[in-house]
Specification:
This protein has 253 residues and is mainly alpha-helical. The protein has two domains: 30 residues; 222 residues, no CATH class. It is 78% helix and 0% strand. It has ten helices and no strands. α7 packs parallel to α9. The radius of gyration is 26 Å and the shape is elongated. The two termini are 31 Å apart. It is found in: Cell membrane. Keywords: Cell membrane, Flagellar rotation, Membrane, Transmembrane, Transmembrane helix, Transport.
Length: 253
Amino acid sequence: MDLASIIGIVSGIGFICVTILLGSGMGLFWNLPSVMIVVGGTIAATMIAYPLSDFLSIVKVTMKVFLFKIEKTEDIIANLVEISNKARKGGLLSIESDIANTPDAYLAKALQMTVDGVKTGDIAAIMQKKMALIKKEHKTGYSLYSSMGSFAPAFGMVGTLIGLVQMLANLDDPSTIGPKMAVAMITTFYGSVMANLFFIPMATKLEGRSAEEITNMTIIYEGVVSIREGEHPRLMEDKLNVYLGAGAKPKEE
């Protein structure tokens, strides 16, 4: 459970609500047509921009914002070094028991290919393709929220324009100008809050988590290739420890 995301959303909503209550009632900031324009317009635009399968994955993507668990980089390196030492002493077949014990399917598949005697080049090609597919899947997730973050304020402005047109059409009654202007502004308020408190921060968090996962996959890739090539475990460890330096991330292709 990601407490930072939950605390951030709850505190953000709380600060906004307290600020509203200090100057007026909450009812003043509720307008159903405005909600329909911003929420409905954002959903509609997102469905136009993305395939239906990508749009329907939004529930899974959202869960990843709050429920996320990733193995520590140093633990992955330590595990690879241990496997490398075992392979160096007892041969590649000696690491077969590690395949069943690892919870990481990416690592397990790579080790299985290593034990099966698959050529290094083939192992590298398969692992790189898998990494590329995961990277593409992640990009779809965070770009989905990034797009919604740009659509919401735009539809907030659309709602404001609709409200202004309706207000200008009734200028013969000055008493309605104030209330109609307030309603027009509320739509922009909804769009800004949705974009800046939910969509854009979620996209940023998902992008960061994608980078973490790809970094770990890169470490596994380099470690397994090193094991297959029979490199000395200490040399492999030195190469992988580079990722512990300054939070290094693999280069985006």
